[in-house]
Task: inverse folding
């Protein structure tokens, strides 16, 4: 049974905030109870350092309060000044929490470095058993809080909650370092105290920098992941009627993502058909990335299209002994560059290896004359008996059918 309750769709701002409130509530209560325990024990054994540690634990409540404030701001509904919502407040919260975590790591690193220069003996004030007990209780509580917070953070994919979890983990790691240093120093390894301090500080600094960099990237508008953009492009080009997909942009507004993509269709496609294609592209793209999808339909254009390139390709197709006919030729030009899609009809007994080699041969032949162009050759077997080929139909002989141009 999961310890995390089900509040609804974690993509919804209000639901995300509810999960963050749960994490913050558990963290606040846990820190307060731990602080009360430390202060009470400190007073009982008359240890000022234990009391001071309890007061420091109370200060940890501040990070959870910051998380509540940030997630409350992030869940606000869109308004006239913020039509895409306020989700990026979550990234600001992540940045602030990660900078606080970074400060903790840097201070610990500084303290460790000072101990290298000016070694100090590790001393336990008060009853050794009492101090060890407090450290172990603190370690257990802080690690449990960290694991719970990480679980919430992964559940709603929240870097802000993850940053708060790292604050708990940093306290647990510091306690581990103190315990290890005490034991190693007792065993005669005096250098263990500053070494443990430096090692743990680096373990804390790394995630703080990672979280800070991630939040800054999102705040300034990070571009789409190349692999994900390529996957989106392939999904769009898999829709019937789409000749080409390009200019994939993802705009991340925290709890709302908007994806825009341009697709090229045959210039003779009707408005009704274009609308259908756009709807199908939206569905295909949403299977790759959960986002609001905006599809820009562009007709394939004759402007700047080199007829010379097309004539060269047709000549290559006609002269190749294994190609019986072609149809549905479309060109996409970008100055001296571009590509052409064309369907070539071949004998039905051609195997996959021959078809692959044929595609390369046609591409190489065209690129010898026009280096900037490539050919997407779609191989089709002929379907009817015909005197010319002796096997299947070659689409009624030579000639372009349904070609764009």
Result:
């Amino acid at each position: 049974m999961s310890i995390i309750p089900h509040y609804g769709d974690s993509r919804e701002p209000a639901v995300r905030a509810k999960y963050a409130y749960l994490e913050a509530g558990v963290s606040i209560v846990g820190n307060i109870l731990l602080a009360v325990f430390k202060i009470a024990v400190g007073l009982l054994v008359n240890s000022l350092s234990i009391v001071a540690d309890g007061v420091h634990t109370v200060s940890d409540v501040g990070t959870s309060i910051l998380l509540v404030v940030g997630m409350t701001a992030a869940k606000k509904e869109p308004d006239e000044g913020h039509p895409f919502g306020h989700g990026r407040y979550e990234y600001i919260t992540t940045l602030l929490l990660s900078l606080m975590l970074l400060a903790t790591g840097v201070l610990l690193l500084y303290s460790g470095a000072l101990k290298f220069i000016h070694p100090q003996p590790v001393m336990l004030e008060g009853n050794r058993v009492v101090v060890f007990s407090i450290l172990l209780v603190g370690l257990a509580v802080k690690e449990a809080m960290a694991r719970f917070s990480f679980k919430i953070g992964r559940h709603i994919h929240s870097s802000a909650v993850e940053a708060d979890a790292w604050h708990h983990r940093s306290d647990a790691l510091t306690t581990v370092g103190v315990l290890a240093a005490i034991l190693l120093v007792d065993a005669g390894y005096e250098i263990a105290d500053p070494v443990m301090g430096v090692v743990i500080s680096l373990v804390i600094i790394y995630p703080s920098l990672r979280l800070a960099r991630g939040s800054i990237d999102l705040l300034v508008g990070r571009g789409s992941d190349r692999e994900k953009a390529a996957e989106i492009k392939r999904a769009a080009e898999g829709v019937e009627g789409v000749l080409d997909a390009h200019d994939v942009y993802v705009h991340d507004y925290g709890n709302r993502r908007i994806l825009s993509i341009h697709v090229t269709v045959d210039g003779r496609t009707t408005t009704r058909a274009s609308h259908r294609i756009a709807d199908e592209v939206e569905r295909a793209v949403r299977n790759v990335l959960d986002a609001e999808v905006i599809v820009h339909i562009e007709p394939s254009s004759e402007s700047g299209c080199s007829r010379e390139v097309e004539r060269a390709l047709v000549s290559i197709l006609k002269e190749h002994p294994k190609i019986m006919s072609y149809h549905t030729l479309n060109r996409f030009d970008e100055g001296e560059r571009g590509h052409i899609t064309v369907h070539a009809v071949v004998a039905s007994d051609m195997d996959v290896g021959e078809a692959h080699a044929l595609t390369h041969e046609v591409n190489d032949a065209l690129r010898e004359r026009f280096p900037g162009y490539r050919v997407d050759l779609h191989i089709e077997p002929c379907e009817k008996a015909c005197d010319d080929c002796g096997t299947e139909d070659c689409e009624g002989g030579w000639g372009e059918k349904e070609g764009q141009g």
